[in-house]
# Entry
Amino acid sequence: MPIFHEKRQLVTPGDLLAENDYINGENTYKENGKIYATRVGLFDHDDKRIFVVALKSFYIPMVGDTVIGKVLEVMLSGWIVDVRAPYVALLRASDALERPVRPQRDDLPALFDVGDMMIAKIVAYDRTRDPLLTVLERGLGKVARGQTIEITPTKIPRVIGKKGSMITTIKNETGCQVIIGQNGRIVIAGKTPEDERLAIMAIRLVEQEAHTTGLTDRVTEMLRKEKVEKSDKEVAENVPKET
Amino acid sequence: MSQKKPEKLIDEKDIRFDNRKLNEMRPVKIEVGILGNADGSAYIEQGKNRILAAVYGPREIHPKHQALPDRAALRCRYHMAPFSVQERKSPAPSRREVEISKVMREALEPSVFTEYYPRTAIDLFVEVLQADGGTRCAGITVASLALADAGIPMRDLVSACAAGKVESRIVLDLSDVEDKSSDGADVPVAYMPNLNAVTLLQMDGMLTPDEFEQVLNLAVEGCKQIGQVQKEALRAKYVTAKEVATETEEEAEEEAKE
Amino acid sequence: MASMMAAKARAKRVAQLIARGKRLDGREINDYREVQIESGLIERAEGSARVRLGKTEVLVGVKIESGEPFLDTPNEGVLTVNAELVPLASPTFEAGPPDENSIELARVVDRGIRESKAIATEDLVVEAGEKVFIVFVDVYVLNHDGNLIDASALAALAALLNTKMFNYEVKDGEVKIKPGYKPLSIRNHPIAVTFAKINDKLVVDPWLEEEQVMEARLTMTIEKDGKVCAMQKGGYGVFTTQQILEAGKIAQQKATELRKLVVKE
# Structure
């Protein structure tokens, strides 16, 4: 049962990872009993599975995912939405309005216009058609305020953290509302733009250092340091001028 | 302005006009992930060749009628900049560029898991900024890295290199002036090293069947060498990111002690 | 939808048969379809030939005109090959400028003729660096039933062998045609041999049904002394070096057989 690499070793597409007896997991494929990597990433395995933690990949829609989308087009009975995937998504008017749609009376752009951001859920997706969205559940709908940033989708789990530890830390330290889309988009809404900037800094730090340990502590420390500097600066600016 | 052509391309000691041995490749330098907007990109310098490759995709396909129901459509454009060659080349696609775009696409397609993304397009752009022979091979080498950089799942990297015959000797990696010599031959080859599969094979010139076998084997060896350089280039991108992260970790530890 | 299913079923059948060493049209793995060659049918052209390879039909016309030489070869005439996949030849051909398939076809046929030095281009010079003759080889596909490359290359060779160069004199810098002619000097006879790879087996001269199922194709052009003068891999599949070298051996045999049909001793 040979394995050809050590854990956390960098592998490239086509690298032979293992032979026979293993199941090929994420970012690998099996041919003639041999398992090869399909993406650049870090090799890992457990007793049964061989897999690769990819350095870079893009979002593939999954039914049930919460995503943050941007409206590309308004049509007669719905919207075409960009969800940062190889496929555009469709939000039908019936999945946005709780009552039946009346095309002559209902003003679709008033609900969502081109360029608007929304928090939506994927209700259907398969190989033969584009993903379908809904905004009819709690917590879904148009993004009314705040900023949206994009990170690589593979880092989303790290931004959330074990049992939500990272995301909770960021929310608490900055007082911001943070909504995470599985598709690598994050909405940050704070009391002030400054607070939002801090939250964004924290998320960017997590994105860059996702593969290191002790990250939650470092993020907390970084945020506290920034806040102290900020209030020092405010104190300095508020000192009355000598007459 | 024209370059002076050397009298003989290979001397009696089998040293080529640019001081290379018969089976020596030109110096190669590759960088991955250098363009900001593209999903994946890579750049190569091989001898005087300077070639850039970028990938967009998988993404919505336009025009829609080009969509394939069961896989992604891989589209490839090989293009030479007007200033890339000795005599300015018109920007309009030449017949040569059209043919090369086709064979490049066919060289890379076997490596991509197109069946994972039906009805999308994976668009590859290869721009030759400076040309000195062997541009389709260097282009394939760097296009394959751009695909890997974009995170598109692949069976293997595709490595490409040409071999041929110049002044009766079998040589590796012909530069432009060697390629243009009469009575020679040029055989560009692309190869998937981990799967032992040839994905591009063309030839101009004349070779006996024995000579062809030698040339093919030499080209495949060249491809394997290029494969090593490609892997190093992918690793280098990761290592720099890792170094930055480790430095920050170390700084944090230092500060914690204070 | 029904025709798509039927097409898929037929494709599967073709592949299955080939795995057992048989072909749907009854041929052996290494057999070409029946070849018919007719020369000189277009009087207005300096040379012409029509090849029928099974049901594939290609017509080639050769025209010779005077023009300027290329800058880097002032002492040589010019060869230019063009191919048209005319819409009447197949429901899949559309009218319009040459697409990548017709460009590839023309360039592969061109390579065979050019690299084998079949045409004595140094005999086509009127005034070095100023005026030479250009040999236009125009490939016109009339019916597509597979393996356009081999049929076109064969027709091009037959047309060139049929080509008569007119006598001329130079008056006031202009080329004036005089009565009489002599055959264009053709000193090599390149023959293209194309293989299709289906289910890891190589079959020679694929017809349309096989082309629609094949993973890849490999063309080798062999000149009269057995040297290889052009090669082209096509399609989205792959070949091992072993398969390439084996194809080379078969191509030698096939080229010799096909050449006998075009070049009369």
Notes: The longest strand of chain A covers residues 117-126. The mean pLDDT of chain A is 88. The radius of gyration of chain A is 23 Å.
